[in-house]
Amino acid sequence: MVVRKGKGTIRGRLEDGTPNPIDTHVGNRVRVRRTLLGMSQERLADELGITFQQVQKYEKGLNRIGASRLWDLAQVLGVSVDFFYDNLDDSTRSKSPRKICNFMEMSEDGGTYGNILNRRDVIDLIRNYTRINDPKIAKNVLDLVKSLCPPEE
To answer: What is the pTM of this model?
Structure first.
């Protein structure tokens, strides 16, 4: 679930408003690597072009680290992006926003397909289908797929 604050949302936070454990884990890994290098928060902040307060917030998981900033952190700290996710336990993994929201696609009969857009084969099918330029061929492909399905009840 996403915590609501007025009309907006607090993205990535747990229902009680605390930081997502994945963000806290990643921030902790930033702190560990920075400390191992003997680097101060001020120096890291200077390297990244941000304030040391922002580094503090990243390290505590209070502010989420975007993809491009995570890339910069990896470059400055001399590690791969994977480093920040090392040792992520199952309990923490289960707190990802995707799992918290439990996004489910509904089928026409009211059942669920599961998170269908997380399936590689579905993405490949959609990507390739949308590349068909001829509307007649696209319709034929759709008809073929439908013909392969069991009859709807």
So the answer is: 0.58
